[in-house]
Amino acid sequence: MRPRFSFRYAVAPLFGFSFFIVLPQPATALNFFALFSGEPSRAETAPAAPTHIQTATRPKPANVARRDASKPARASVEREARPAPDSSPGLPLFGVVSIADQQISIYNHNGLVTRSPVSTGMAGHGTPRGIFTIIGRERYHESNIYSGAPMPFMQRITWSGIAMHVGVVPGHPASHGCVRLPADFAAKLWGMTRIGERIVISPDDVWPTAFSSSSLPEPKMYLARETGAQTPVYGPTESGDEDAHVARLNPRQYAERLKAKAAADALSAARALKEAASAERAAQEEVAVAARELAAVEAAQTTAQMKAEAADEAYLAATAKAHALQEEASLSPETLTEETPRRRGFAVAIEAAAKARTNAASDKVTFATAMIDAREKVQAARAALVSKEAKLSEALGRLSQATETAAATAKADAESRKRLAPLSVLVSRKDRKVYVRQGLSPLFDAPIAVTDPDRPLGSHLFIATAANDDGSGLQWSALTMPGQFESATEALERIEMAPEIRARIGERLWTGGSIIVSDLPPSNETGADGTDLTVKLR
């Protein structure tokens, strides 16, 4: 089809001349994103999405390209399809993308919430079929594959490049694998959905039905007396039970209490860590000051010792000289009796030697005293340094303990936040395992058994969409992927899971939680943190 353009015209006067100008019509959001989609463009008008569904029977798909006429049509099936009564639908939500109908349907516990046409992957770039999760959201995203092409309101469902985002919706598959959304609907959907909500991509349209089964895990309740390590309880209380009047908390309420306590503990630990770090820095500075003082008094002691030794040597020299003069005088007494210049010089020398000896003796005493004082100061400085080092050691110990406490409380805070996220469970017939994750992180896996293990189960999604009336249990919706396999009830009944594993699941299971029962193992999109349990249909 050739693209159609419409124009408007204007006459603009400039410098005395009139110019006839052809102006294109204002670009729509659809045309704008076609310029930057990074994928082959189809310049066709996208059909408008219906705003509501009136009937309770299966709604007709949006007016978009249908499946190949050679394929048999699916039988009309009665189902609940009530639109949500307001613009803020109850959570959790989950979506179904139909490849054949080129549409996305958003559901909650009341049924259909909204619907829109989409464009999925064209031939050679097919959109993967399976059960996925919204694992990331960016209000404005630029493609790292298609030269930075803008992809506003991007909601990622795989880390291999598949997402829902604004794009051209021509009425048939035209993308390189992503699910393109009309701009208005993409913005609307962005405000409705949350990370952790399920997105099903199916070859044909599928829809949820209300579901109940004793084979589903049951949520466990917690006593509200305190928030801490508790054994979950379940079931009605006996009239004589001492805990009969103690309120019960569902797993989400319990997680909220854990989060509040963990946040308070983390704040207190951070404050204690800050104080411990400040005390450690002060102790380090005191040790440094004490070390400098010790170095100074040790230097003073060294100087005093050198002066004392010099004074001692001077005293010894003066004493020796005086003794030598006295000895000489005793050997020549006539020299001292005659009034001669030699006698006068000898007398002066003896007097000087005596005076030098006296001064040297005085200096010796002075510097010896100074050396003793310096030694005492050194001892005091060393004792002060030892004391400061002991205080520093204590400060380091408190800092280490505060650091460990802060790390533990931060971990507990992160764990409590994770408990608020939807629980994700996958039961795989191929692996004979149940995998459990929460907050896009693995919790545990465990072996299970499957009755008649060589017979296929199919792929079924069970979503806890609401709490029951008394708040002690859950309401479920079930969705079965296309194929001639077991029903959801039959598939569940063939799974044999240990009671303790069911109990561990129940401790964290609340609205938004989902269980996949499938013949398949976790897909290659399931990895470490930041991914969820998904299955890809072959």
From TrEMBL:
Entry-linked CDD domains: YkuD_like
List each copy of the L,D-TPase catalytic domain by range.
93-202
> Which Pfam family is one of this chain's hits?
YkuD
Q: Which PROSITE patterns match?
A: LD_TPASE
Q: Which residues form a coiled coil?
A: 280-328
Q: In which pathway does it act?
A: Cell wall biogenesis; peptidoglycan biosynthesis
Q: Which GO BP terms sit in this record?
A: cell wall organization; peptidoglycan-protein cross-linking; regulation of cell shape
The UniProt keywords, alphabetically, are: Cell shape, Cell wall biogenesis/degradation, Coiled coil, Peptidoglycan synthesis, Transferase
Please list where the region (Disordered) is annotated: 44-89
Task: Provide a GO CC annotation, any one.
Answer: extracellular region
Ranges annotated as biased composition (Basic and acidic residues): 65-83
Leader sequence residues: none
The answer to whether keyword Mitochondrion applies is: no
Looking up InterPro entries in the UniProt record yields: LD-transpeptidase, LD_TPept_cat_dom, Transpep_catalytic_dom, UCP029342
Active site annotation, chain numbering: H165 (proton donor/acceptor), C178 (nucleophile)
Q: Which domain of life is it from?
A: Bacteria
GO MF, any single term? transferase activity
Look up keyword RNA-binding and say if it applies: no
Record family assignment: Belongs to the YkuD family.
Q: Tell me what this protein is called.
A: L,D-TPase catalytic domain-containing protein
